Please model this.
Amino acid sequence: MADHVEHAVNNVSVDGTEGSRHTETSPGRTEVELNGQPPTARPPLVLTDTEEDEDEELTLKYGAKHVIMLFIPVTLCMVVVVATIKSVSFYTQKDGQQLIYTPFREDTETVGQRALNSMLNAAIMISVIVVMTLVLVVLYKYRCYKVIQGWLFFSNLLLLFFFSFIYLGEVFKTYNVAMDYLTLALIIWNFGVVGMICIHWKGPLRLQQAYLIMISALMALVFIKYLPEWTAWLILAAISVYDLLAVLCPKGPLRILVETAQERNEPIFPALIYSSTMVWLFNMADSAETRNNSSHPVPEQENQVAVAPMAQPDDDGGFTPAWVDQQQHQLGPMQSTEDSRREIQELPSARPPPEEDEEERGVKLGLGDFIFYSMLVGKASATASGDWNTTLACFVAILIGLCLTLLLLAIFKKALPALPISITFGLVFYFATDNLVRPFMDQLAVHQFYI
Amino acid sequence: MTVAVFFGCAFIAFGPAFSLFVFTIARDPLRVIILIAGAFFWLLSLLLSSLVWFISIKASNSQDLRLQRDLLIFGVFFSVLLQEVFRFAYYRLLRKATEGLAAISDEDTSAISVRQMAYVAGLGFGIMSGAFSMINVLSDSLGPGTVGIFGDSQYYFITAALMTLALTLLHTFWGVLFFEGCEKSRWWVIAAVVSLHLLVAGLVMFPLDAAGELHITRASHYCFTFIHTARVI
Model:
C-alpha cells in the first residue's frame, strides 16, 4: 500500500552541508559532475581550520533558511488536514469500517480489553510496515528498480485518483454543491494525470511540492478516519521508536537504504521524498546538460538529468552561436578542454561560491513524516475537547521538534529520523494540553482572567 | 452578525500582532524560528503551571467554591511567575546561541542583535498567550448564539478581543524590557516587569464594574509600560 512505501523513507537528509565554498560533491547529495570534473577525479581537498569554521558558520547561517523551507510545507499540510477535519464531517465519522491491518475492534466492554486490542492492532500495523520496509530495501539492494517504480506508480495512482475522488465527493456533499459525473471525471482526470507527471517525471518544482503535500494530506486523512482512537496514538508512538531504530542502528533498514543510495550516487526515489530544491530523477537517459554557473559558464556532461525548474533549452545551453561569436570576438578564441577546465578549477580562487550552491543545499523530508505530523495534528483537532488550543499546542510542538531535528542534522550531517522528537513533543503536548491546560484555560475564560 | 463579530474580534485581537509579524519578522528565517521558539517556551510555562493548578485542584475539596476560586487565583499568580522564569530561561538560551554564532563568525556582529531577539521573543510570548486566550472564544463566536442571553454582559467578545490585544502588546513590551534589564544587569527593571505582569493579572481579577475594569486596567498598564520603555531607552 502507498502508506507503507511512504513510511519506509521517513527520514531527513540534507544536501551539501559540507563544503559550500568548494564545488565538490559531498556524499549526501546526488552526485553531479560540476564544471567538467567527474566526481572521483578530484584530489581530496584538505580543509584548513578557517575553511572549516567558515563552513560551519555558513551552515548555521543557511540552516535557518532550510528550517523555514520545511516549516512552510509542513504547516501547509497540517492546515489542509485541520481545515478538512473541521469542515468535512466524513473524516471524523466512524462508520465501523477499519483497515485490514487493524482487525481488532475497540468498542469492547472493558478498558483492559480495549487496551489489549489496540496494542495488538498497533503491533500488526508496525510489523506490516517493517516487512514492507525490508522488502523495499531488499528490492533496492538487488537493483529491482522496475518493481519499486511500479509499486510507487501504482500507489500514487491510487492516491491521486481514487482517494482524491472520494475527498472531492465529500467536500461537495458538505457544501451541497451539485456536480455531474462528466465534469467530475474531467477534473479528477486532469488532477491525477498532472500529479503523476509531476511526481514521477518532470514538472515545475512548486507544483510537484504541492502535489506531494496533497497526497500526504490525503493519506493522513485516511488514517484519521480508519484508525480507531487508542490504536492511532499507539501507532504514532511506536512508529517514532521504529523510525529511530531503523535510521540510526547500523543494521537498520532505512540506514542501509540511505547508505546504498549514497554508495551508488543515486537519489532516493523522488516519489517518497519532499525536496525543497530541484528534484533529481534516476534512471533517465544520459544527455548533455548545462547549468548556469555564474562564474564558469561552461557546458558540462552529467550522468543524470536535472529536473530543473528552469526550462531546458537545446544542447548548446543557451550559448547561441551569436553569443559565442561575440565572446570570441571580445576575449579571443578560446578552446576549453577537460584538462584545461580541471586546471582552472584547481587554481585557488577567491571568488564567492556560485549562486546555485546555496539553493542546491536544500533539505529533504520523507513523505511519511508529513503524513504522521499531519495525522497527529488532525487527530488533535478531531478528538480533543480542548479543541483549538490543543491543535495549536501540537502544531507548535511539532514545529519545534522539526527545528531541533534540523539543528541536529546541521551538527551531525547525516540522515536522521525526523519523527521521534516531533512526535514525542506532539504527544506530550496533546495529552498535557487536553487534560491539564484545558480545564485551567476554561476556568480562566469563564472568569475572564488573563495571564 | 456572527461572522461580522468573528472577523471584528479576530482583527482586533490579532491585527497588530499579525502586521508586526508580516512586516518585521516574516522575511527573516532566523526571526521566525525565534518567534516560534518563544511561543514554545510560553507554552511550556503554561503547561507546568496548569499541572501545578490541576494537582492542587485534585487534592482539594471540589465542592468548596470559595476554595476553588482561591486556588484559581493562586494558579494565575503562579503562572505569571513561571512565565517570567521561562522568559529568563529563554533569554539565557538566546544569549548562548548568539555567543555560539558570534564565536565562529568572522564579523564582530552576529546576524541578529539582542534587542531584536528581545522584541521577537516578546512577540512570540504575546502571540501564543493571545491565541490561547482567544481562539476558542473566536471559534464560538462564529456559530449561532446570542451573547449574554442569560443576563451576562453583552460585551464578552469585544472585551475578550481587546484584552487579548492588550496582553499581546504587553508581552512584547515586557520582552524588550526584560531582556534589556538582563543585558545591563538592571535588576530593578526585571522586578518592575514581573510586578507589572502580576499587577495586570491581578487587576483583571478584581473588577469594579463591567466597564470600569476594562478602562482602568488598559489605561494603567499602557501608561506604566510606556513610561518604563522610555526610561530604559
In short: Residues 62-277+363-447 of chain A form one domain.
